[in-house]
Amino acid sequence: MERSISPDSILLLKTAQATGVTTAWDRYEAQLPQCGFGETGLCCRHCLQGPCRIDPFGVSGPKYGICGASADVIVARGLARSIAGGTASHSAHAKHLVHTMLKFSRGEAPDYSIKDKDKFYAVLQRVGITRDGKSEEELAGELAQLALDEFSEREDPPVWLKTTITPARMQKFEQFGLIPSGLDSAVAEVMHRTTNGVDADAVNILLGAIKCAVGDYTGMYLATDLSDILFGTPAPVMARANLGTLKENAVNIAVHGHNPVLSEVIVAQAELMREEAIAAGAPAGINLVGICCTGLEVMMRHGIPTATNSLSQELAILTGALDAAVVDYQCIMPSLPTVASHYHTAIITTMSIAKITGAHHIEFDEKHAGQKAQEIIRLAIEAFKKRDPAKVNIPPVVNDAWAGMSAETIVKVLALVDPQDPLKPLVDNIVNGNILGVCLFAGCNDVKITQDKTFVELVKALAAENVLILCTGCASGSFARHGLLTPAATEKYAGPGLKAVLTALGQAAGLGGPLPLALHTGSCVDNTRAASIATAIANKLGVDVSALPVVATAPEAAMEKAVSIGTWAVAMGLPTHVGVVPPVTGSPLVVQVLTQTAKDLLGGYFIVEPDPKAAAAKLVAVLKERRAGLGI
Amino acid sequence: MERSISPDSILLLKTAQATGVTTAWDRYEAQLPQCGFGETGLCCRHCLQGPCRIDPFGVSGPKYGICGASADVIVARGLARSIAGGTASHSAHAKHLVHTMLKFSRGEAPDYSIKDKDKFYAVLQRVGITRDGKSEEELAGELAQLALDEFSEREDPPVWLKTTITPARMQKFEQFGLIPSGLDSAVAEVMHRTTNGVDADAVNILLGAIKCAVGDYTGMYLATDLSDILFGTPAPVMARANLGTLKENAVNIAVHGHNPVLSEVIVAQAELMREEAIAAGAPAGINLVGICCTGLEVMMRHGIPTATNSLSQELAILTGALDAAVVDYQCIMPSLPTVASHYHTAIITTMSIAKITGAHHIEFDEKHAGQKAQEIIRLAIEAFKKRDPAKVNIPPVVNDAWAGMSAETIVKVLALVDPQDPLKPLVDNIVNGNILGVCLFAGCNDVKITQDKTFVELVKALAAENVLILCTGCASGSFARHGLLTPAATEKYAGPGLKAVLTALGQAAGLGGPLPLALHTGSCVDNTRAASIATAIANKLGVDVSALPVVATAPEAAMEKAVSIGTWAVAMGLPTHVGVVPPVTGSPLVVQVLTQTAKDLLGGYFIVEPDPKAAAAKLVAVLKERRAGLGI
After folding, report:
1. Structure letter (DSSP) for residue B194
2. What are the helix (H) ranges across B153-291?
3. Is the domain defined by B243-391 classed in CATH 3.40.50.2030?
4. Closest to B91 (Cβ–Cβ): which among A84, A91, A188?
5. What ranges in B418-452 are assigned the alpha helix state H?
C-alpha cells in the first residue's frame, strides 16, 4: 500500500528508510496481520477473568464471553468505551480552558485577556448571563463557573446543549433519554455500564454511548466558545502549509497537540525573543509552525503555517531542521523522543497529565505562562545550536492555505451579500440547486489507509457535484497540504453551481476571486462550528437538522475522539460517512443500529465506505434524498 | 481444575452437566487458551489504528504500538482504564444513594426514611454540617448536596476523603498529586490520559490511576455512609447461607446486584405480600434470599440468607426452585435469561442503565418504590405458579453465618470491655501479640481458580497465626457458605491468642462463646468500613496506616472494581495480596512500581501470589515486619 500521497511525506518517508528511522508506518507493518478479534470488536478485557473473544464465524469458537456477554454486547461495550475516551478528551480540553478563564477572572492568569469582546458578549447572552455593569473579570468568573457546572452531575440539561441545538432535536434527545446529566458524569456512566455485569442489552448500551457523545458535542461547543473569547474568533487569514514551511535559517519550533492555551503564549513570546534567536545564529529568527490541531488553532488565529498532521508528525523531525516540538496533549506519538534521538530536536512535554518517557518536561501553568513559554523557546534555541546542517533536508513543498472560516466569518461573508438576512444567500443557493448540499470533512489520518488519499479524492468528487465543503482538524490540515484551501482549487475542482456561489461570495469579500474550495472551519474540537451553521439554517427554515442536505465525513478516522464526534454528528441528524471500518463488524446488530435504526430514531446514521468514489456517490445520493424530502 | 469447593456449587454443577445447561465455568473452558497478549496486558485498542500488541518476549514480534507506545505504556493504560471502570461503578452506586437521599429530602421518595439517626448525626458532624434546629429533610438535602458536589470538578479535596484518613496520609496524597479533583472527573481524567497520544509515561499514568482509585475510596465511603443512614447501620445478626436456604414450599426471590436501594423496599413489601404467596400455593410465603452484594446488604441489615456469590449465580436457577431473580447492577451475568429459559425463573432487571436482552424489565424509581417492588414480587409469584416440581433440586447445604460486623458494631463490642477507650483492648492485644495483625479479605470469586479454595485455605492459615480477620463482599459470602462466620469456626481454626481475644469479646457481648472467626464487615462497597478501623487505630497511636500490622487480600479477584479497591488499599498504605495474576506482567516496570516502588512512596504495595499457603506465609512475614517497625 502507498503510504501517503502528500509529496512532503513521500520525500521524508524515503529519508526515514534511508536512515533507518522507524515511523508509525513501519510500526503498523510490524503489527500486520492485526488481531481479527480486536478488528471486529469481538474481544473483551473488562474484567480479570478475560480476555474473552467471540468466534466471528459462530462455528467452533466461543459464542459468549465467560460472563455470558454476546457478540452484540461485547462490541457495543467496546464502542461505548471508545466514545467515553473521546468525550473525556474533548471535555478535558474544554475544562482546561474553563480553568484558564477562572484564573483570568481572579487575576491569576496575567498573560491572558478577553481577546474577543463581541464573542464574549454573544456567549454571555446565549447562556443567560446578564452584564449589568459587571466588570470583565466578574463576567468571566460567572461564565467560567457556569461552564464548570456543565461537567457536574446536574438536574437541568447542559446549557451549552440546550442553547445550541434546534428545539426539535432537544425534544428528540429528551424522548430517547439522550441528555447527559453532566459531561464528566456521562463518561463515568459509560464506564459503569460497560464493566462486568451491568448493561447487557446492546441497544441500551448504544443509547448510553450516544448520550455520552451528546456530552462530547456539548464540551466541544464550550471549548470553541472559550477559545474564541480568550484568543479571538478566527477571521480569514492566508497561511501556508507543508513541511517546506520549516526554514533553514530560523529556529524552527513546532507547536503540537490540541489546546491553544499554551501555544497562544508561545506565539506572543516568540515575537519578543526574535533577537535571542538571531544572536544564536538564526538570521530569520524564530519560525513557529504547527502540527496537528494546536497548529490549526494558531494557523487560524495568527496565520502560523501548518507543517503537518498527526500521522506524519515524526517526519517533521526527519527534516533535520526542527529544533523543538512543544506538545500539549492528544495525538502525540510516544515515539517522538526516539525519533528525535537521531537528531538534535528537543521534545518538550508541558502538561502534567501528558508526559512522555525520554522527553524534556517543562510544566506549564497559566500563572507563569509567559515565563514558561520563554523557558520552552530558550530550550529550542539551545537545541538549534546543536543542529547538524548536514542532516537538514527540508522538502521544497509549500502550499498556500486560507484559514479562519469560523461560523462567524461565514456569516459575515454572507452578510456582504444580504446584510439583513445573511443566511438567505446560502439557503437560496441550496434551494436553487447551485449548491447541492453541505459536507463537513473531519477526522484524522489513519495509518491503515494511504495518507490523504481518501480526503483528496472524496473532496474533489463532492465539489464537482456542487457540494459546499467545510473542514476541520486533520481534514483542514490535509486539504491545506494539497492546495485545496485556495481560490485556485475552486477554479479547478468546483462544479459550476458551487463555483458561481463561491466566486460571488469571494468577490463580495473583495478577494477578486472565489472563496477557497474547502472552508477551514477550525481545529478538530471546532466541529461544532459547522454544526452551529446547520442549526442556524434549520432554525431559519423551521425544520430540524435531520431534514437538511447536510452530511459529515471522517474519511480517515483514527482516534477515539473521531468515534465520539461521528456519533454526535449522527445524534444531531447528520448522515455521517466513515472511510475506515470501525471495530464493530463482529455484531450485525450493532452495525444495523448504527447504519439503519439510527436513521429512524435520529435522522442521522453511519455510512461506512472505504472507497472514495463509492463514498462520494453515496453522499450525493443522501443529499439528493434530503433535498427531495424538502421538496427542492 | 476443580471448579469449586463449595458443596452446593459442586452438586449443582453436576446438575448443569446432566441437563446440558451451560455455566460460566463451561464458557471459561470454551475460552481456553485465552489470548496471551490480553493476559499480559500487551494489547491496546485505544484507537482505530489498532489493535496493537507487543511481543512479550521481545524477539520477532512488535516492540511498540503503532503510535510508539511501549509495553510499559500499554500495560499502564490498560490498568488505568480498569481502575476507571471500577471507580465509575462504585461512584455510580454512591451517586444513586445520593439521589435517593435528595429525593427523600424533597418528599419525592415516600418509601424511604432516615433509619439510623445516630449515624446521620455522626456523618453530618464529620462532614461539617451544623444541625441548628433544621428539619430532617433539610439536613438530608444539605448532606445530599454536599455529597453530590464530591462528584464534580472542585478545588477543595473531597470531603469524604479528607475527613476519613489520617493527616499524614492526606499530606502524602497532596505531595504526590493523588487527590482527585472530583469523583466523576477522576474517571474522565483517566479516560483522557489513556487515549491515543496523551500520557506516555507509564509511571505518570500509574500515578493518575492511583489518584482515580483514591476517588474510588471516597465514593465507597460515601456510599456506605448513605446506606447506613437510609437503611440502618448493620448490627450483629445471625443469618444463614448456601443454596439450601431456598425453600421448596415458598416463593423464592433472589435479590442480586449491589445497591440496597431497591432490595430494602422489596424486603418491606415481601412481608406485606406473604398472603398473596400463600394463596398462590406457597405455604411458607415468600422466601427472600440474596446473591452477591445486594444479598449481603440485606443479610447484614435483616438477616436475609445469602444464597450464593456472583460466580455461582447461575446455579441458583439450577435448583429449579428460584422463582425470580431481581437484579440491579454489577456482576450480573448476561447469561441469566438463557439459563432461566430452561426453568420457570423470571429474571427481572430494574435499572435503566442495566438491562439484559431476554429479561423482564420493570424500571425502578424511588418515587414509586413500593409499587414497583410489589410489581416485581407479583411477577415472582406468577413465575412460582409455573414451577416444575420435578425439576426442584435444592442442595441440602445450609450454614449459619453471623453478619453485621460494621465498624460501629466492632467499636461497640470493644466498648463492652473498655467503655472509656474502646480501641484500647484491640490495640493492647495487638501489642501483646495475642493478635499478630489484621487482614481484610475482599474481592470476588474468579472462574480462573477453584471457587472459594484460596479464600478458605488462606483464611484458615492466617487465623491459625492469630491474624484477626475482617471480610467484605464475596469474601463474606464465601466464608458464610463455608461456616466460617461462626463461633464454632473460631474454636476450630483460630490460633490461641486470637481465640482468647475473640472469646473474651464474645463473652462480653453475651454470646456465651467467641466471636466468629471472620467478621462480616459488609458488602463489597463497604471496604471502607475496614479502612476506617485502621485509620482510627493509626490516629490513636499517632502513626500512619502504613505503619500498622494491617494487610488486605483479594484472593480470588475478578472485577474491575477489585482492581480499583486493591489500588486504593495500596494507596492507603496497606500491603495488598492478590491471588490471581492481573494483566500487567507484560511490563516489568509496571510490576515493579506496583509491587516495590509503591512501598517506598505510599507504604502499601501489591503482593501477587496464587498459592494460598505461600500467600499466608508472605502476609505473616509482612505483619511481622510491620510489628518490628513499631517495636512490638
Report:
1. T
2. 159-162, 167-175, 183-193, 202-231, 260-272, 274-279
3. yes
4. A188
5. 423-431
User: Which three three-digit cell numbers place residue B609?
Assistant: 501470589
Query: Would you state the cell numbers that stand for residue B54, as one nine-digit string?
Result: 507487543
CB under 8 Å, gap of 24 or more: what pairs does B268-271 form?
B268/B111, B268/B370, B268/B373, B269/B370, B269/B373, B269/B374, B269/B377, B270/B373, B270/B377
Quick check: A458 and A517 in contact, CB under 8 A? no
Asked if the Cβ–Cβ distance from B184 to A47 is below 8 Å, we say no
ipTM of the complex, rounded to two decimals: 0.98
User: Is the pTM above the cut of 0.95?
Assistant: yes
As a whole-number percent, the residues of chain B with pLDDT over 70 amount to 100
Contact A595, A605 (CB under 8 A): yes
Which fold is adopted by the domain A71-231? Substrate Binding Domain Of Dnak; Chain:A; Domain 2 (1.20.1270)
The confidence score (pLDDT) of residue A514 equals: 97
Under 8 Å between Cβ of A610 and A581: yes
Supply angle C-alpha B564, B569, B574, rounded to 5.
155
Count CB neighbours of A33 within 10 A.
6
Residues of B in contact with A335 (CB under 8 A): 64, 67-68
Among the CATH numbers 3.40.50.40, 3.40.50.2030, 3.90.180.10, 3.40.50.720, which is that of B402-630?
A: 3.40.50.2030
Q: What is the pLDDT of residue B308?
A: 98
User: Is residue A122 classed as helix, strand or coil in its secondary structure?
Assistant: helix
DSSP, residue by residue, A13-67: HHHHHHHT---HHHHHHHHPSPPHHHHHT-EE-SBTT--EE--TTSSSS-SS-TT
- A34 neighbourhood in chain B, CB within 8 Å: 50-52
Nearest CB to A192; choose among B39, B92, B338 = B92
Helix (H) or strand (E) holding A472: strand A467-472
Q: Enter the C-alpha cell of residue A124.
A: 454571555
Ranges of each domain in chain B: 7-53, 71-231, 243-391, 402-630
Q: Can you give the pLDDT at residue B194?
A: 98
Contact between B310 and B254 under an 8 Å Cβ cutoff? The reply is no
Tell me which of A26, A46, A48, A581 to substitute to probe the interface with B (most B C-beta atoms closer than 10 Å).
Answer: A48
Q: Would you say the CATH fold of A402-630 matches that of A243-391?
A: yes
Distance of CA A294 to the CA centre of its chain: 10
DSSP β-bridge partners for residue B230: none
- Tell me which residue in A187, A196, A335 faces B331 most closely, judged by beta carbons: A196
